[in-house]
Amino acid sequence: MDRPRLLDLFCGAGGCSMGYHRAGFDVTGVDINPQPRYPFKFIQADVMGIPDSFLDEFDVIHASPPCKRFTKTGWAKYFGYNENHEDLLTPTRERLLSRGGIWVIENVPGAPLKANLTLCGSYFGLNLKRHRLFETNPSIFLLVPPCSHKKGVASPHGHARKPGELASWRIGLGIDWMNEDELAQAIPPAYTELIGKQLMEYINAKAK
Which partner from 45, 83, 103, 135 sits 20 to 30 angstroms from 197, CA to CA? Predict the structure, then answer.
């Protein structure tokens, strides 16, 4: 049986893609920037210019538009940081809403999503504080325990500065193929593996 096909828009170096792959999807990623370490089929292109005919080739669409417009952490709280970055989430969400089908949008807390799921690394036993919102169609509602962050939690931002720090970040995110800059933007594969398994159950039930 062929794997359902999933298109990962704004894929970056493939954190979300790996989770969906582990859940059983055949994944293709699209990003405007080159992604030499992306682990699956990759197309370098402007996501905003992709035609509907190409989207129609996939069973599921995932989108992780850049979060810089909405992030509230670190330096993003100062100097008009958010306003200097384009909102690509809103037009992407509107497009997926108008298309229907099965889709997932991911972004940071504070982003204009009707999120039905918030995930944290501590839920998966990862030494990581990285909250992310997910809006899904169909809606997925999972009971998740409260966050339980440990001291010394891995939180990669920028470049590793201490011996062993890069290795600890990779362990914290469950990612072993990315460099420092890619890790700073990545979603742990555990997040989308959980979502992907739910979507796979939905797809299989519809096929019966």
Answer: 45
Burial label for 125, CB within 10 Å (0-12, 13-18, 19+), is exposed
What does the pLDDT look like over 24-55, one tens digit per residue? 999 999 999 999 999 999 999 999 999 999 99
- What is the rounded CA–CA span in Å between residue 23 and residue 9? 18
> What is the model's pTM?
0.88
Residues in the chain, pLDDT under 50: 69-70, 75-76, 80-81, 152, 158-160
Q: Is the peptide bond before 189 cis (omega within 30 degrees of 0)?
A: no
Q: Check residue 171 and give its pLDDT.
A: 84
Question: How far, in whole angstroms, is CA 17 from its chain's centroid?
Answer: 8
Neighbours of 71 (CB within 10 A): 19
As a whole number of angstroms, the distance between CA 179 and CA 156 comes to 10
Q: Cβ distance 33 to 13 under 8 Å? A: no
